Amino acid sequence: MITLRRSSRRPILLICITLTLLLLWHSGLPPSVRRQPKPIPNTQGVLYRRSSFDWANLRRQYPRDKLLRLPKGDPITFPRVQHNPSQSSSPATAVEVIQSRRNAVLNAFRRSWASYQKHAWTWDELMPVSGQGKNPFGGFAASIVDSLDTLWIMGLRREFDEAVQAVALIDWDKTTMTSINMFETTIRHLGGLLSAYDLSSEPVLLAKATELGDMLYAGFDTENGMPPFWFKFSAAKYGHQVGGDRDSSASGCSMSMEFTRLSQITGDPKYYDATERVKQFLRATQQDTLIPGMWPAFLNYRKMLATDTRFTIGGQADSLYEYLPKMHALLGGRDPQYAKMAEEALDTVSKNLIFRPLVPDNADILFIGDANAHKTRAHEHVPEMQHLSCFAGGMYALASRLLNRPDYMSIADKITRGCVWSYKAFPTGLMAEISSHVSCAQLTTPPNTDLQAACEWSEEAWKLHTFGRGSLDTMPMGFRSVRNPQYLLRPEAIESVFYMWRITGAEEWRDAAWDMFQAIVNATETKLAYSAIRTVIVPKGGETEKTDSMESFWFSETLKYFYLIFSDDDVLSLDEWFRAFTTIRALHRSHDGAGAQDHYATLKVAPNASPSEIKKSFYALSKAHHPDHNPNDPTATTKFHAISDAYATLGTPAKRASSPTPPRSFYALSKAHHPDHNPNDPTATTKFHAISEAYATLGTPAKRAVYDRDHARHSHHAHGGAQPRGSYHSAGGRPASGLSRRRSAFRGPPPSFYRSGGWGAQSEKRQAAHDDSTGGTGATPHGTRPPPPPPGAGRPSEAGMGPGQDPYGHRREAQVPHFDREGHTRTQSAQDSRRRTRMEGQGVMPSGSGDSAVGLFFAISGILFLTFFLPYVFFGGLTQGRRKKKDVEKLRSKTA
């Protein structure tokens, strides 16, 4: 029985040893073999939580043989978009009035944000009447993520930091929903993260954006690469998703801005590739629809068809058209297809959808309707106006500059005026969600084919077309009916007002914006914040019915536009930053290199200032230039934002380390060659862009390191037969990557060699002694070494060397010998080995190769064998010996 019991334990012991060995074997494998999670970003004190599912390593069911990459080449030169302040009309309102209006907008935001923090923090939305939270977008804190850039722009740094911390803890795989809307998640979450990252450079925002981008990218893993409307988590993980056979055109075709920007920032082309394939589908079908030049509201993504009959730029289609001119700018004009698609689409919309309504004051305004297309007869125009369609005013205004189409500006002006007119038409001062009108083209028989033809007001004609469709007592004149009377806190109208203000500089747009803001506050205010209302048709002075809804675009768009309208023009200038969707996302234009800020000069501190000196200067300057303390200074807001941005960079050690100190030459040259200062110089724009691009590269440490490496490599190999030069040549011999952990081949003596005098005036004797001690390894491969030049011939007589010199008198175009190459290479290799060992110990880099892992396996196996087997044998032997002794004694006792 003893033997049986002992043997029954052996399999258990062997299993335990085997499992332990396998565990240690797995942990000993290099990361190239063992799957490793992405490194945690440098979050600067922010508690960061990586999402529980790693979408980046998900195996695609339909892998791409070749990824489409971002277009290369020189960007085109865009004309100025924003108005020149010196050419704008005289201010109609005093500076203090503008500041008070901006403060009113800021207070409305603060009030809404405080209630959201108190009652619905990390929920998608606050219900502003009941004070509860709700999660219509997966519970990924939509209001927080969507509002990040607004918090930054408004200077609410404490609230911004709190929001960043909340975002850092989001787990994109933890949701109570089985599916989410891909379009909404992209524009609210991915767009919000990228916009805020472009503004603040917070690493955790890029980390979360990349996590989300990887997840959404899985939605494009379909047979033809077209995305579905709903992102289903379980189906996406197994590659079982398919494109819809009748999904809205906006949902699948309005993710290009966010995905392209993510590729630009991360350098990973897969995101751009995903939406570029959708763009190619759009381009292929643009002229093959029932209204050539446009796309129907619904597309068959599964079969890649565009055969539906309803056409609109309102709901279901709006952002598809909006993204076209913006993508043209985001790519720097490098993809000419976007400009062609935008122009063809906007011309078609102008001809087939935009109409002039019959209004009582004969106002020169335009609305945008829909069209029902037919194969065999004329298309049916539907004179309905949606609040969503008001974005078109800003779209046409922006396109007039980006596409060099001045005629678009007139359309933009009239559409925007039409939306402002609709706000004023109702007693609440708010525009309805969807309203129907009488088109001037309908008043003729047959109907006029020119939808924008003017007509005189006729009350009889209005009543004739309105009779039976609504109450004439409550319906404002000029409206045929109101199909959806809600007001949802939407931003589209104020968005177009913002663009018209920034592009034209006409003060009337600021006045219109203020009237709209007052009407919104009066009609939507609740005890906690502001709510959508059920109908705008309320007797003047009557109470509106709140629907207990406040979507995230109230923070991220509506209030942001109001704030920017009453801010200085250089706060998020249209010529330096670019906008995605309708949220004026701060996505930096890819061709912009100018505009870098000298943070040290802004805070009036030296580059070597201590953290306490920087902090002290920040407090003093921010107090001195705060807009509230300088109501009569129109530049106070700009200065205050610059000071805040400077401290946000210099107050963080990691950001300060990567913050360049702009050279004076950049400011001098950019000012001297600025196109505005040289109107008669046709080359000024080219020079200015070249200067800007040069500083964009040399002013960023990482970009400069790459440039220096590439430049050094090209210049070294420019002359045939020349070997790589070392540090003999100052200012370029040792590349900027000399301090990088990615060590390059040894290229010459260290800087200490020159600090101690180098070869000096006695270069001949020292070099001869060097040759004697090294066996002549310094000799040139071409034979004899030329004698050093005399002190006056391009080389100073004192110790050391000047630019472009070496101890043997060689020039850059000559061959440069090496000194004791073998010895120094051995030393360098030993240093690299020690450095690698330290990095492995700190977990910075993979440890060893597959061979070292095998050796580690046998070493650990031997240790475990000795650890388990020897005690087992030793103690087992003792026990067995004692038992045998007892058995012998028993046997003897029985025998006796």
From TrEMBL:
<dbReference type="GO" id="GO:0036503">
    <property type="term" value="P:ERAD pathway"/>
</dbReference>
<feature type="domain" description="J">
    <location>
        <begin position="598"/>
        <end position="711"/>
    </location>
</feature>
<keyword id="KW-0732">Signal</keyword>
<dbReference type="Pfam" id="PF00226">
    <property type="entry name" value="DnaJ"/>
</dbReference>
<keyword id="KW-0472">Membrane</keyword>
<dbReference type="GO" id="GO:0005509">
    <property type="term" value="F:calcium ion binding"/>
</dbReference>
<feature type="signal peptide">
    <location>
        <begin position="1"/>
        <end position="35"/>
    </location>
</feature>
<feature type="active site" description="Proton donor">
    <location>
        <position position="433"/>
    </location>
</feature>
<dbReference type="GO" id="GO:0016020">
    <property type="term" value="C:membrane"/>
</dbReference>
<dbReference type="InterPro" id="IPR036026">
    <property type="entry name" value="Seven-hairpin_glycosidases"/>
</dbReference>
<feature type="region of interest" description="Disordered">
    <location>
        <begin position="709"/>
        <end position="850"/>
    </location>
</feature>
<feature type="disulfide bond">
    <location>
        <begin position="390"/>
        <end position="419"/>
    </location>
</feature>
<feature type="transmembrane region" description="Helical">
    <location>
        <begin position="854"/>
        <end position="875"/>
    </location>
</feature>
<dbReference type="InterPro" id="IPR001623">
    <property type="entry name" value="DnaJ_domain"/>
</dbReference>
<protein>
    <recommendedName>
        <fullName>alpha-1,2-Mannosidase</fullName>
        <ecNumber>3.2.1.-</ecNumber>
    </recommendedName>
</protein>
<dbReference type="GO" id="GO:0005783">
    <property type="term" value="C:endoplasmic reticulum"/>
</dbReference>
<keyword id="KW-0812">Transmembrane</keyword>
<dbReference type="InterPro" id="IPR012341">
    <property type="entry name" value="6hp_glycosidase-like_sf"/>
</dbReference>
<keyword id="KW-1015">Disulfide bond</keyword>
<keyword id="KW-0326">Glycosidase</keyword>
<feature type="region of interest" description="Disordered">
    <location>
        <begin position="652"/>
        <end position="685"/>
    </location>
</feature>
<dbReference type="GO" id="GO:0005975">
    <property type="term" value="P:carbohydrate metabolic process"/>
</dbReference>
<feature type="active site">
    <location>
        <position position="318"/>
    </location>
</feature>
<dbReference type="InterPro" id="IPR050749">
    <property type="entry name" value="Glycosyl_Hydrolase_47"/>
</dbReference>
<feature type="active site" description="Proton donor">
    <location>
        <position position="184"/>
    </location>
</feature>
<feature type="active site">
    <location>
        <position position="492"/>
    </location>
</feature>
<dbReference type="GO" id="GO:0004571">
    <property type="term" value="F:mannosyl-oligosaccharide 1,2-alpha-mannosidase activity"/>
</dbReference>
<keyword id="KW-1133">Transmembrane helix</keyword>
<comment type="similarity">
    <text>Belongs to the glycosyl hydrolase 47 family.</text>
</comment>
<feature type="compositionally biased region" description="Basic and acidic residues">
    <location>
        <begin position="808"/>
        <end position="825"/>
    </location>
</feature>
<keyword id="KW-0378">Hydrolase</keyword>
<feature type="compositionally biased region" description="Basic and acidic residues">
    <location>
        <begin position="763"/>
        <end position="773"/>
    </location>
</feature>
<dbReference type="InterPro" id="IPR001382">
    <property type="entry name" value="Glyco_hydro_47"/>
</dbReference>
<dbReference type="Pfam" id="PF01532">
    <property type="entry name" value="Glyco_hydro_47"/>
</dbReference>
<feature type="compositionally biased region" description="Pro residues">
    <location>
        <begin position="784"/>
        <end position="793"/>
    </location>
</feature>
<dbReference type="InterPro" id="IPR036869">
    <property type="entry name" value="J_dom_sf"/>
</dbReference>
<comment type="pathway">
    <text>Protein modification; protein glycosylation.</text>
</comment>
